[in-house]
Amino acid sequence: MNPEIKRRIEQIRRGDVPEEYKKAIVGIIPDSWEPKKLKDICEINPPRKKKEAAQTTFLGMSDVDDSGHIIAQHKMDIHQIKSGLTPFERGDILVAKITPCFENGKGANTKTLQTETGFGSTEFHVLRNKKDGDFVFTTPFLTLFGKN
């Protein structure tokens, strides 16, 4: 780990505010960040916008990890998808709904999805950024907004 980053992490753990950081209601954050309500920056569980292609991807809870990555993708024909699953699009963020997966920060950014659309476990919430270039980072107790 970069020594400078390690030093800042230690400062924050002690409750000190490093240079170019500030205290906010959510904790110590970079000066350039502004805490926002999730509903102001994302559509939560948005309706499908894209027409389904012949191929789609299925993601189960075991296909994502707690560091925001997809670890397995199951590409299949759209007619193999059962109703009642959670629809999403490439670029959406999946967040676990239930304990303990939510508490462990389980979820994924779908930017590496092999198809334009996908379906997932009913145990996912879908977050879709309202503005291009923005990203959302969520943990069970913290939601931050920033710029890519």
| Total DSSP E strands | 12
Strand order of the largest sheet: 3-10-7-8
Secondary structure class reads mainly beta
Order of helices and strands: HEEHEEEEEEEEEE
% residues in beta strands? 35-45%
Which value, in Å, is the CA radius of gyration? 17 Å
The separation of the N and C termini measures: 21 Å
Q: Portion of residues in helices?
A: 10-25%
Low-confidence stretches: 138-148
Give the helices and strands, then pairings:
Layout: H1 3-14, E1 21-24, E2 27-30, H2 38-41, E3 42-44, E4 55-59, E5 74-77, E6 86-89, E7 93-96, E8 107-109, E9 117-120, E10 124-129, E11 134-139, E12 142-147
Parallel strand pairs: 4-9
Antiparallel strand pairs: 1-2, 3-10, 4-5, 6-9, 7-8, 7-10, 11-12
Question: Any descriptors?
Answer:
single chain; 148 residues; mainly beta; four-stranded antiparallel beta sheet; four-stranded mixed beta sheet; 12 strands; 11% helix; elongated
Q: Could you describe the 3D structure shown?
A:
The protein has 148 residues and is mainly beta. 11% of the residues lie in helices and 36% in strands. It is built from 2 helices and 12 strands. The strands form 4 sheets. A 4-stranded antiparallel β-sheet has the order 3-10-7-8. The protein has a 4-stranded mixed β-sheet with strand order 5-4-9-6, with no helix packed on it. 17% of the residues are buried. The C terminus is likely disordered.
